[in-house]
Amino acid sequence: NTGTCSYRINVLDVDAPEITCPANITVQRDPLGTCYAAVSYTEPVGADECSVTTVRSRGLGSGATFHVGETVEEYTATDASGNIARCTVVVKVLDQEQPSIVCDSSKAVANTAGQCGAVVTYTAPVTSDNCNVSSSGSLSTVGSGSFFP
Predict the structure, then answer these.
(1) Does the pLDDT value for residue 105 go beyond 80?
(2) What DSSP assignment string belongs to 39-103?
(3) What is the spatial distance between Cα 137 and Cα 144, in angstroms, rounded to a whole number?
(4) Which run of H or E residues covers position 37?
(5) Pairing between strand 25-28 and 84-94?
(6) Buried b vs exposed e over 79-107: b needs ≥16 C-beta within 10 Å?
(7) For the chain, what is the radius of gyration of the CA atoms?
(8) First-to-last CA distance in the chain?
(9) Rounded distance, CA 116 to CA 52, Å?
(10) pLDDT the model gives residue 131
(11) Burial, 9: exposed, middle or buried (Cβ in 10 Å; 0-12, 13-18, 19+)?
(12) Is the pTM of this model over 0.85?
């Protein structure tokens, strides 16, 4: 006499893969007068007991041209069982080139007869910057061609 039995064994992979991004990167823009920098770094590769695929899921990638500011690079490792791990690296490009401003010269204007002030015209300040700074604010609340008390 013999007896038999059968059963099924399922081995489940519940462990997410491992992935480690490089440290955040901060660089100066290059060359002088531009608003970007080419940045290269070692792209992460996921590891797992089973097969794993690593893709850049956000950002520009190593060797790309990054504009002034911060760009988040995200990498995703997915194993054969669909377990996922992610990591990010922030690439920060600095612009330390100062903007320029050209202002009209100071003016001394006599008051208008019988009034405590005068109409004054002046040239508005002109600003420029390698990274497109815009003028912000004004030193005067009275516009050119207006009456200044």
Answers:
(1) yes
(2) E-------B-SS-EEEEEEES--TTEEEESEEEEEEEEEEETT--EEEEEEEEEEE--PPPEEE-
(3) 15
(4) strand 36-39
(5) parallel
(6) bebebebbbebebebebebeeeeeeeeee
(7) 31
(8) 118
(9) 80
(10) 82
(11) exposed
(12) no
